[in-house]
Amino acid sequence: MSTVAAPALSVKNLTTEIRSRDQWHQAVRDVSFDIVQRETVALVGESGCGKSLTALSIMALLPPGVGRIVGGRVSADGQLISGIADAEMEKIRGSRIGMVFQEPMTSLNPVLTVGFQIAEPLLYHRDLSRRAALARAVELMDLVRIPSAAQRINDYPHQFSGGMRQRVMIAMALACAPKVLIADEPTTALDVTIQAQVLALLAELQRSAGLAVLLITHNLGVVASVADRVLVMYGGDVVESAAMPDLFQRPTHPYTTALLAAMPRSDRSSETIAPIPGQVPALAEMPVGCRFQSRCPLREVRCVERPPLRPIDAAGTHHVRCWVTGGAP
Amino acid sequence: MLRFIAKRLLFAIPTLLGVLTLVFFLVRIVPGDPALVVLGDQASPEALANLRERLGLNKPLLVQYVDYLGAIAHGDLGRSLTTNRPVMTDMLAVLPNTIELTLASLLIGLVGGVPLGVLAAVRRGGIADWLARIVSLIGLSFPAFVSGVLLLVLFAIQFRWFPVISAPRSGDILERLRALALPAINLGVIMIAYVTRVTRSGMLNALSQDYVRTARAKGVPARLVVWRHALRNVLIPIVTIIGLNLGVLIGNSVLTEIVFSRPGLGKIIVNALNTRDYATLQAMMVVFAFAIVITNVLTDLVYGLVDPRVKTP
Ligand SMILES: Nc1ncnc2c1ncn2[C@@H]1O[C@H](COP(=O)(O)OP(=O)(O)OP(=O)(O)O)[C@@H](O)[C@H]1O
Ligand SMILES: [Mg+2]
User: Fold this and answer.
1) The domain that contains B108 carries what CATH number?
2) Partner of A56 at 20 to 30 A CA spacing, among A85, A292, B146, B178?
3) How far is the CA of A215 from the centre of ligand 2 (A)?
4) Is the C-beta atom of A66 inside 6 A of ligand 1?
């Protein structure tokens, strides 16, 4: 027995492949991180960096025939949950790990009532009766501040606004009081003011329930306000990982620097925003070695070799995957 | 819900009026004197004049039109030229047979087609998928009367499992079902084909939707993801395809009734054609117009049941 509690969610060397035109390409490469109770880890990066695939791999929800996990281990509370039977995984999803998706408009079933959809996990994981589960659903709707919950329980998703639907998604994900919440761009599809409300709600629920949260976002502003630790992803690689203020104080990987330069900030005029030149290459066109080299201003000859993720500080909490900037402390 | 029904019925009135008008003019546009067509060219001038008088053909067209609509509004479909009995009475006597046949084939289509389509989509390329393809091919490529004759020859004449003449006279429920079986299967296979195809493609689409991923992410068992989360959504296209094909189904019912010598609307039409009973034919066109409009309203009502977005804004 170890005296230190196992992390709520632990991902070790996760590698996932995606098939495109009959070829399998690595889309998540050797990703490792732990999240403990009450901690929020943010996963940031541009569109197509492999953030969602990381989350889907953890949940074993990769589209069959298109995505497959080829290496690594995922455990929740010390229990291995990767590579287990489907029926076993069904008991983990929604019960030990809840997940909120990006698209509140399409992620709810249009022909089932909101109340039933929130109550549903309780039917399978907690063996509640339909009546008890629905009663609990009302409480959950109150918890995520959906006004007049009791009257709205029999409403359908199309009767709710985007922000309210995302609250429904959160209520659903938290119905069985999981220890881990994975939120995949939970606010991207919402108006700015609604975004702030939903984030505040998430932060509050996390504090009261002691959740471990994996927050996926491409909005560094969101990261700054809620994350404890940040993983920056590019082309399926974690290119930099750091504790929160550290990343903003000492961005080291050229991609992180570029991301921060591209971030709109109140203390900066919009002329100084520098969008990252070029685009994330398609998986089939990824360069060998460092995947960022095709867009990197600091590129050198040795970048054709894949750099390791190395610590750059004495405490070993700040890691960078770069030959040029990621030297030893 | 009641308001929804009332609104739908109200909207059906112009359609119905249009169809009735069309029937009226169609019958009158046909070249030649109807009286002559009915009685043949050997008929005496008095007899012809008599018939014209009886049919109201010597009145001005507008008066005829108003009389015609007025009669229909009173539930009067006119009298048969051959038997002189009210068409309404004869029609109502056999209508239950036709409804029974149509409903039975609808039931066969749903009970056979929905599970087959779902299984075909869940296991693409599996046995169910293969079976679905064969059934669709059979159901959609044989005209109803050809498959009807085949069924009749095979199961009624060769094997003698079912009666050749499917006239459900006795009150015995088993006899009635035995008489219904072959015609219902004949039409049911066509319905299975339509329903299987739309269910399969609808399920393939539904299973790739975000809400299915959400359901899996909260731990809904795979079986319920398919049969509850995905299939509920596919009910909408299934109702659509059935609604669109109800006209075809009714038409095929008529053909099937003729092949199986089953009393029903089809038989009335054939008799009317054989005896050039022009009044009955016009009345039957009106009946079918009503049938189509009513089934359309019913389809819309079922929409309200399977798609919550229809009745709630
Ligand atoms: N179902 C799929 N079929 C084919 N390629 C896919 C599929 N899902 C993801 N990919 C590819 O895998 C890579 C990573 O995708 P992923 O969805 O993880 O990106 P992301 O970081 O979540 O981006 P976004 O911010 O747009 O959500 C992309 O190149 C994407 O094109
Ligand atoms: Mg994504």
Assistant:
1) 1.10.3720.10
2) A292
3) 11
4) yes
User: Is A109 a pocket residue for ligand 1 (Cβ < 6 Å)?
Assistant: no
Nearest chain A residue to B313 by CA distance is A159
Alpha carbon separation from A132 to A60, A148, A177 (Å, rounded): 29, 19, 16
Query: Cβ A125–B211 below 8 Å, yes or no?
Result: no
- Single-letter amino acid code for the residue at A122: L
Tokens at B297, concatenated: 């309203």
Q: Say whether both B275 and B176 belong to one domain.
A: yes
Counting ligands in written order, the one closest to the CA of A66 is 1
> pLDDT tens, B40-61?
778 788 888 888 887 777 888 8
Nearest Cα residue to A8 out of A94, A74, A83: A74
Q: How many domains does chain B have?
A: 2
Q: Is the CB of A47 under 6 A from ligand 1?
A: yes
Q: Which of B218, B302, B311 to substitute to test the interface with A, most A CBs within 10 Å? A: B218
Please tell me whether residues B22 and B128 are part of one structural domain: no
Check: complex ipTM more than 0.95 = no
Residues of chain B under the 70 pLDDT cut: 1, 30-32, 166-170, 311-313
Count Cβ neighbours within 10 Å for each residue of A226-258 and write b for 16 or more, e otherwise. bbebbbbbbbbbbbbbbebebbeeebbbbbbbb
Q: How far apart are CA A234 and CA B224, in angstroms?
A: 37
Residue B148 lies in a domain: yes
Q: At B221, is the secondary structure helix, strand, or coil?
A: coil
